[in-house]
Amino acid sequence: MFRFILQRIFATIPVMLVVAVFIFLMLRLSPGDPATVIAGDYATPEAVARIRANLGLDEPLPVQFVAWIGNLLTGDLGISIFSNLPVTTLIAQRVEPTVALACTTLILILVVAVPLGTIAAWKANTWIDRTIMIGAVLGFSIPVFVLAYIFIYVFAIRFGWLPVQGYVSPSVDVVKFARHMVLPTVALSGFLIALIARMTRASVREVLDEDYIRTAHAKGLTERAVLMRHALRNAAVPIVTMIGIAVAILLSGVVVTETVFNIPGLGRLVVDAILKRDYPIIQGLIIVFSFVYILINLIVDIIYTALDPRIRY
């Protein structure tokens, strides 16, 4: 088990290196110049050149990359071009809303999607199954930002039940935190609930046709025991895989959701940094998101071995 985990950890190192190279080249080779943005529309070429020299953008790409990797290995993500603050400080200031939104969304997905998919598989080809799958198709069809604006209009503007935008820390007021999290959480989770519910239905439906399920029924076990102890557990590997993929979708969806609901999290920070071409912030955030995604994949691999010990061999 320990050897398997160690192999997975070492496998993440080249992945992170490839991600770092891709991020660096993608930003440096894309059109636009942050020095020009900083200097303004009426700046002279000499002023722009001076700013480029101060930022180190006049150095060859290999020199810039080596310097950036060296700082990255020491935990230094750089200094923001516009705010002149360390990127780690800016991320620390914005990380709580994003983590809160991601956690509430993930909890809602697990609580709703897996039971719905299991019930749809158990009641296959009935009106219950068809109703759940129709809901899943609707969840697939409506983009996150469209669903968000619908919720804002209905529940915030039309009826005034929930706030339109903003964020309140749970350490300040738990009730206000919950009220502000309801709309973005439900809007962000719609697509992912549909995705995981369909995958759960397909996996559980396939397992329910196996011989050991018929044996469990013949032993006199209840439907609930058969579903939970035998069907769902043996169908869990592809479901866990899909949940890991959902985390990647969740990270991208956070950017859109935080922009729509004006939540001061990492998603908003990404958007602001892209508009200003603030290289250090963009690079730092993509590295952090990539690390989180790789960490989630590592956790998923470990969960695989607990669900099916044959995988480690």
What is the strand and helix layout of this fold?
Layout: H1 2-29, H2 34-39, H3 45-55, H4 61-73, H5 87-122, H6 127-141, H7 144-158, H8 174-207, H9 211-218, H10 223-234, H11 236-260, H12 266-276, H13 279-307
Helix pairs in contact: 1-13, 5-6, 5-8, 5-11, 5-13, 6-8, 7-8, 7-11, 8-10, 8-11, 9-10, 11-12, 11-13, 12-13
The shape, in one word, is globular
SSE pattern: HHHHHHHHHHHHH
Q: Please state the second-level CATH architecture of the largest domain.
A: Orthogonal Bundle
**Largest β sheet strand count, sense and barrel closure:** none
CATH topology of the largest domain: MetI-like fold
Distance between the termini: 9 Å
What can you tell me about this protein's structure?
With 313 residues, the chain is an all-alpha fold. It is built from 13 helices and no strands. The relative contact order is 0.14. Helix 5 (87-122) crosses helix 11 and helix 6 (127-141) crosses helix 8. The chain has two domains: 2-73, no CATH class; 95-312, Orthogonal Bundle (MetI-like fold), CATH 1.10.3720. It is globular. Helix content is 78%, strand content 0%.
